[in-house]
Enoyl-[acyl-carrier-protein] reductase, mitochondrial
Amino acid sequence: MAPPSRLLPPMLQILRRRCASRCHFSTAPSLVSPPSKAVLYDEHGAPDQVLRVVDVPPVHLGDRDVCVRMLAAPINPSDINRIEGVYPVRPPLPGAVAGYEGVGQVHALGPAVTAPLSPGDWVIPSPPSFGTWQTYIVKHESVWHKVRSDVPMEYAATVTVNPLTALRMLQDFVKLNPGDAIVQNGATSIVGQCVIQLAKVHGIHTINIIRDRPGSEEAKDKLKLLGADEVFMESQLDMKNVKSLLGALPEPALGFNCVGGNAASLLLKFLRQGGTMVTYGGMSKRPVTIPTSYFIFKDISLRGFWLQRWMNSDKAEDCRTMIDYLLGLVHEGKLKYEMEAIPFGEFSLALEKALGKHGSQPKQVMRF
C-alpha cells in the first residue's frame, strides 16, 4: 500500500512540503485570496466624483505570487494627481485601483515562492506599485520587500515616497559635510520634516521657510523641536539682505523647492555663490522665475528631482536598503512626522481631508 503522503494530489503534496519547511506556514494555506474591498476609478477626474469603493472577488495565486492583507496606506498628493489624470505615470483605465504605497501583512504564499517570507511578515511594495487602496493584494513575490514590524504601521506605510525623497535629495546633488547648511521652503510638509531630521543626523544645518497663515508660530515651534536651526515666515524675508538673518550659520550650498512662485525666489536669496536649487514640487502652481543676475553673477544651478524616475533606474536594491535605514531611524526615535490614521471604512472623510476640504490637515493614512 502506498504511503499516506502519496495518496494526496500533487499540489497538496507540494504544499505539505512547504509546511514542513516553514514553521509559521498555515496548515491549510489558501491558493485563492479572500474577497477584498478596493477603491476603483474608471476615468480621470475629481477624486470625490470618480472614486468608488467596490467588492472585489477572490484572486487565484500563481506559483510565485504572494497574497498580502493590507494594513495601512496613505493618501499622497501624487495619488490625487494620478486620479485627476495630471501625473506623468498613471495606471491603465478602466478599473484602476488607487494608491501607490502602503504596508501589508503576508497572508498566503504561492507554492513556488522562494523569497524569505512567511505569513505574518510585514511587507511593502518596493519600488512602490499601483493599487494599494484595497484590503487584499496578490502580486509576484519580487514586488514585496520585508520590513521590520516594530515601528508604527503608519511609518512603514509612508516610508517610500516622502522620507526617501528627502534622503535622496540630500545625497544626490551637492556633497554636504558636517557643518554645512541647506535651505528649503515647504518645511512643514513631510518631506520638509524629514529633511530637517535627516540633516540633523548628519550634522547639516537647516534654514526653513514656511507660509504666513494661522498657526505659523506653532508650526515654527514644532519644526524647531525636530531640529530646525532657523525657521522664517515668508513675510520676514521681504528684505534685500536676507543673509543677515543667518547669524553664525554658513550660506547654504543647496536648496529644496516644492512650492514655486515667490517661495522659490525667497529660497534663492539664501544660496551661496555656485549654489544649487532642486525643485521637487510645485504646490503653489506658480512658475519659478529667476533673475538673470543669479545666473551671471552667482552661477546658480537649477535641478529637478522625481523619485519615480530615480527608482525606475535599476535602483531597486538601493531603494530597499535605504528604506531599512529610514525605518531604523524611526525605531530609534530619530525620524517622525505628522500623520492622522483613519479607518478605511471612513474613506470618504479621509479623502475630503486630503483634498483640503477641512482646512490644513496632516497626511491621511488609511488603516484597513
User: Anything to note?
Assistant: Confidence is low (pLDDT under 50) at residues 1-29. The chain has two domains: 14-160+338-367, 163-308.
